[in-house]
Design goal:
The complex is a heterodimer of chains A (354) and B (226). By secondary structure, chain A is α/β, with parallel strands linked by helices. Chain A contains 17 helices and nine strands. Chain B has 226 residues and is mostly helical. Helices cover 73% and strands 0% of the residues of chain B. Chain B has nine helices and no strands. Classes of the chains: A alpha/beta (354), B mainly alpha (226).
């Protein structure tokens, strides 16, 4: 597809009706927390937007992000919008392979220098491990740096690209870094999640198409429209938390009744994502609805924050051995203090006698 | 269990849940055992002949001091019963809020039933209200103010902060801070309490029993009412 076509042209070519298109625009505007009056602006902007060239670079990743985005939206309108950007390089999805694929990427980067969107999934190994992750003989660190130079903005897709994710988990055997650790002179939008909610990614791209800018971001670089509220506050199981009704195990009566999963380690209270509202697979379900607590996968270093099944309020207080050593040390200090006091007492009594 | 607690980019909440709490627990245990050992080993030469049973006097006083002495009742009834209300409220919030119970379950290995959040909110507000009233009373009553040391004010603050940060986190009234930051402050306020506990007046929670006993025993030896 030629990059010069507008999104509207492409949608019409795909047989998308005006009504269907407007419904999508209304949904997108609402997802982005825009007032209803902005729907027509959204529609006009998306329809007339020149399809931006998008280069998607997968690094140290599992392809889960790509799987999520392709599988869950076939063939919805969001899928077509995604199709309607000019995805010039994505080595998992593109038909071309080998040198041809690399040539396509180089060509897109040259033709759209300064204007293309760079999407990255996966973290990047660095220092002595730089060569541990390569494509076509180029290290991913060098590829990221080259591609970032001509990018208008970068979208870090998934927690690995956004924060380092699982590859960066302690002890970080490849000295993996996130995109924002390595590129500091470009606007970066983090769309974390393991994998991210597909609608969130299309929403972010739609925002870019409409406004030509990056959306408002939270302190972790995530779009506020999708990551502004935590899972716990939007969870449909929240009333059970308030009432003190919890699932104690994964198959007890409470679990069958859909009670709160806090006791089973749900990280909803400290996790910011759109899962609870947007849900997955065209709004069918999401992890908590399927009976498993939130893992907190859209948060930095979620892999290192203890067991997924440990309740949030169960802190890392230590262990019996440490407490025992502490008690022994305390007893020794107490004995010493008592001995000292008795010594003083004796001395005072002797002085009194004398 | 505590492996992997240290990693790059540890957040304030991670620090509060992990290293801060661990060190606070260690200091708490050392302090409690140290002071208790020193107290129990302290000796006092008994010069006078015993006029009554020290043991029974001590045991009796453990109970009798739980109610105000008849002669003093009029003067201390407010502080006595507001003290009861505060302690009961504090224990309800501490033990029967589900996340708190889970904190203790992790340490003790067993749990217990908890209360709906509505009750916890009620008791939190009541206990905070009582603490504020008692502080105001302490500041306004000239005699009490004279008797008050820095230890009292610090202990009041240390006891108040977990409630304040707890209710802030629970209600999401965070004054612009992120929820995680407030939750971290809640954990840190508890760590501060644990560290201060053995060395300030909060230690009364432990000392109340041996000190009541010792006073009762000493009075009984002399043949007077404790």
């Amino acid at each position: 597809m030629a990059a010069s076509k507008t999104v509207g042209d492409v949608l019409r070519a795909h047989g998308v009706s005006r009504r269907g298109f407007m419904k999508f625009c209304a949904a997108t505007a609402s997802m982005m927390a825009l007032p209803p009056s902005m729907v027509s602006t959204v529609a006009a902007a998306i329809e007339n937007a020149r399809r931006p060239s998008v280069i998607w670079l997968p690094f140290q990743e599992c392809t889960g992000c790509t799987e999520a985005i392709t599988r869950s939206h076939t063939p919805t309108l969001e899928g077509l919008i995604f199709d309607s950007i000019s995805l010039d390089y994505h080595h998992t999805l593109m038909a071309a392979s080998g040198q041809r694929a690399e040539d396509a990427m180089m060509q897109a980067m040259e033709e759209n220098y300064g204007n293309y969107l760079l999407l990255v999934d996966g973290s990047i190994p660095t220092e002595e491990f730089e060569s541990h992750s390569c494509t076509n003989g180029h290290t991913h660190l060098s590829m990221l740096k080259d591609a970032a130079t001509g990018a208008a903005a970068i979208v870090s897709v998934g927690t690995c690209a956004a924060y380092g994710g699982i590859p960066k988990a302690n002890p970080n055997p490849t000295k993996a870094r996130s995109v924002q650790d390595l590129i500091t002179d470009k606007p970066i939008i983090n769309v974390p999640g393991c994998p991210p909610v597909p609608t969130v990614l299309t929403g972010v791209l739609a925002h870019y198409l409409v406004f030509g800018t990056i959306p408002e971001l939270d302190p972790y670089g995530r779009p506020m429209a999708f990551f502004g509220q935590n899972i716990h506050d939007r969870c449909y199981r929240r009333p059970f938390y308030e009432r003190g009704q919890f699932a104690e195990t994964f198959d007890d009566e409470g679990a069958k009744k859909g009670y709160c999963l806090y006791k089973l380690g749900c990280k909803g209270p400290i996790t910011y994502n759109a899962c609870a509202t947007v849900r997955w697979n065209e709004g069918t379900s999401w992890p908590v609805q399927s009976g498993h607590g939130c893992l907190g996968c859209s948060e930095p270093d979620f892999w290192d924050k203890g067991s997924f099944y440990r309740p949030l309020s169960a802190a890392y207080w230590g262990d019996a051995r440490t407490v025992g050593i502490g008690a022994a040390a305390g007893a020794a200090a107490g004995l010493a203090a008592a001995a000292l006091a008795r010594g003083k007492q004796k001395k005072a009594q002797q002085e009194e006698k004398a | 269990m505590n492996e992997g607690l240290y990693w790059e980019g540890m957040s304030l909440l991670d620090f509060a849940r992990g290293p801060a709490l661990r060190w606070a627990v260690i200091i708490f245990v050392i302090g409690i055992v140290w002071r208790l050992t020193a107290l129990l080993l302290a000796s006092r030469k008994q010069l006078e002949p015993a006029k009554g049973s020290a043991t029974s006097g001590g045991m009796k006083t453990l109970l009798t001091r739980s109610a105000p002495a008849h002669e003093l009742e009029k003067n201390i009834v407010f502080q006595h019963y507001s003290g009861y209300a505060w302690h009961i409220g504090m224990f309800v919030v501490l033990l029967f809020f589900a996340p708190h119970m889970l904190f203790f379950k992790d340490i003790l290995g067993f749990g217990w039933p908890t209360l709906p959040n509505l009750f916890i909110t009620f008791f939190t507000v009541v206990t905070m209200g009582i603490l504020l009233v008692l502080l105001a009373r302490r500041l306004m009553n000239p005699v009490l103010r004279q008797l008050t040391t820095w230890d009292d004010y610090i202990s009041w603050l240390i006891a108040f902060l977990p409630f304040l940060t707890g209710i802030m986190a629970f209600t999401h009234i965070t004054f612009g801070m992120r929820y995680e930051t407030v939750l971290a402050l809640h954990f840190l306020s508890v760590s501060a309490l644990l560290i201060w506990f053995p060395f300030g007046k909060l230690m009364h929670a432990i000392f109340i029993w041996p000190s009541r006993y010792k006073v009762g025993a000493a009075f009984a030896r002399r043949g007077v009412r404790a």
